[in-house]
Amino acid sequence: MKNILEVNHLHKNYGALTAVNKVSFKIEKGNVYGILGPNGSGKSTTLGMVLNVVNPTSGSYKWFDGSMSTHDALKKIGAIIERLIFTHQ
């Protein structure tokens, strides 16, 4: 199946802090994905990098098998990056 997004060894440092450590994954056409993990695990930073909001330290990603720029790809996808706060009731 065709890959919508392919991420290869994406890495992000903020000074001495490693926020994302060489993550790799593929998202296939027709599927819905979620990224789960504890606070501070790099979920928002990873999405920020592939959405062209955060510059990666190293690694690469490509949208639609590299056939279009990130700018054009963003017109075809949707992403939500937000902070949820749950309260116990």
Brief digest:
The chain has two helices and three strands. The chain is α+β, with helices and mostly antiparallel strands and 89 residues long.
- CATH level-two architecture: 3-Layer(aba) Sandwich
SSE string, helix = H, strand = E? EEHEH
User: What is the straight-line distance between the termini?
Assistant: 44 Å
Structural class: alpha+beta
Global shape: globular
Helix content: 10-25%
Domain ABC transporter: 20-79
GO molecular function, one term: ATP binding
Protein name: ABC transporter
InterPro entries: ABC_transporter-like_ATP-bd, ABC_Transporter_VariousFunc, P-loop_NTPase
Your description of this structure?
It comes from Nonlabens tegetincola. GO terms for molecular function: ATP binding; ATP hydrolysis activity. It holds the Pfam family ABC_tran. Keywords: ATP-binding, Nucleotide-binding, Transport. InterPro entries: ABC_transporter-like_ATP-bd (IPR003439), ABC_Transporter_VariousFunc (IPR051782), P-loop_NTPase (IPR027417). The chain has two helices and three strands. By secondary structure, the chain is an alpha+beta fold. It has one domain (about 5-75): P-loop containing nucleotide triphosphate hydrolases (Rossmann fold, 3-Layer(aba) Sandwich), CATH 3.40.50.300. The protein has a three-stranded antiparallel beta sheet with strand order 2-1-3, with helices on one face. Strand 1 (about 5-15) and strand 2 form a beta hairpin. The N and C termini lie far apart (about 45 Å). About 10% of the residues are buried.
